[in-house]
Amino acid sequence: MASVLPGKMSLSPATTTMRLFNTLSGEVDDLVPSDGTELRMYACGPTVYDYGHIGNFRTFLEIDVLRRFLKLTGMRLRHVMNITDVDDKIIRNSAAAGVTIGEYTAKYVHAFFEDLDALRVERPEVIARATENIDRMVELIQKLAAAGSAYRTEDGSWYFRIKSFPEYGKLSKKDGARVDVDEYEKDSARDFALWKAPKPGETSWETAIGRGRPGWHIECSAMSMEFLGSSFDLHAGGEDLMFPHHENEIAQSESVTHKLLARHWMHVRFLLVDGKKMSKSEGNFFTLRDLLLKGYKASAIRLALISVPYRHQLNFTFDGLIDATAKIDRLRTFHDRLMKGAFPAGESAAVQAAVKKAQEEYFAALANDLNTALALAPIFELVRLANTAMDQGKFHQDDREAVKALLADFDAVFVVIEDHDAEPTRRAVEWAKAEGREADVAPELRAQVSLTDEAINALLAERDQAKKRRDFARADQIRKELAEKGILIEDSKDGARWKRR
Ligand code: AMP
Ligand code: ZN
Q1: Can you tell me which atom of ligand 1 is nearest the CA of 272?
Q2: Which ligand has an atom closest to residue 244 CA?
Q3: Which of 192, 324, 384, 494 is positioned for an S-S bond with 303, CB 3.0–4.6 A?
Q4: How far apart are CA 489 and CA 52, in angstroms?
Q5: What sign has the CA pseudo-torsion 336, 337, 341, 347?
Q6: What are the residues whose beta carbons fall under 8 Å from the beta carbon of 319, sequence distance 6 or more?
Q7: Of the residues 56, 65, 270, which should be mutated to test ligand 1's pocket, given the most ligand atoms within 8 Å of the CB?
Q8: Tens digits of per-residue pLDDT, 85-122?
Q9: Can you tell me which atom of ligand 1 is nearest the CA of 314?
Q10: Structure pTM?
């Protein structure tokens, strides 16, 4: 399929200003770099103790949509994401498996990036691993202790003293009265751990504040300070992180810097599955890999997870996934027709006006608090209108250029028209084989991935030859064989094309 490259033909209005809901102010605020050049943002990353589930990826995808849209409007970004590669679960699971935490997490870090690639999530400019920044965390705890905000308990753990930070709760509008379940001694039930003394056999670091390991919250404060400075533009994560994680980050950082940690806070609402919280015991828990093995395309999963605006609860269903698959088919078929069709020279005033209107509505919807649902509507409306114009011979060569530019802007953010679906599916099937999960691979997928693109092209060439020598029986047999493996052939006057079902 021809590529949909964003770039010089972009219709992006240079004047677009992003407006985004800000949890801190409670209002939709302009999102602009405070230094006038580069937007500095921090997004909490994964805890790598298992494979990512679709709820995790919903959050990373929404942040990707924001990133890509900001770039489309010409903004420069410095986006930092942490990887939590040490925590209680990681320590427990690695000990149970008899490996070091590094050995244990390596597999899930690798899987996480493979999954991000499958979903076409762009890499942040900086990826920071907790275990590589322990010194920064220790230094921050020392500064907190010097400021009277941190204290050490008898077992060698360190806690943050919440009563030293009167603004505690300003983000979530809560005050931390919730009783913490940590089994460590502390002055006040609300105080949270900065540093945990090791229990026998647990992974730990020997440091200036004693032996132990960092708490989760201090990680993000220390690493955002290291890579973005003491105050930055945007902090993002799923809604579950607002309290206590982000509240604790604010308390730790601002107690030392006396500056606003982040001016803008973005929280992505949770994903539900069939109207319920996703849970393993409910049987409605899905990793990305589970869905790929069921035969759903990565692009359809991406579209299903971003079609509902980030501030709305997304109810994930298989019907929604099927609908996303149909939408992508429609876009790709139209794009093919657009690229390959023969149109008369010139332009049509009606098509040109429709493209301009769609372009304005598309940008306005995304600029207005990243409303992905509203942004999709004008694109599909334009596809409908252009298809009709083509049917009636009223679509011209210059219309093609205008529509191509709009689709390029669309795909710069949604990233579903260009077809990269074969690779993630092939990789998921290979992974399932390696993990002894072959039984989970959908039967039609098994046949499909056994055919490489080269093998399909070779069969098509053979079919062409067969037709030329009027051996229609062989030609038909090849078509049938491919159809059984989910490969559809379309004959046109320019020769045969194929696609995977
Ligand atoms: P974790 O690896 O659990 O720290 O989570 C990584 C990211 O996924 C965080 O930003 C979470 O807020 C987010 N997250 C976890 N579960 C869901 C869910 N069901 N829906 C949306 N985001 C989620
Ligand atoms: Zn964080």
Answers
A1: 19
A2: 2
A3: 324
A4: 35
A5: negative
A6: none
A7: 56
A8: 999 999 999 999 999 999 999 999 999 999 999 999 99
A9: 20
A10: 0.90
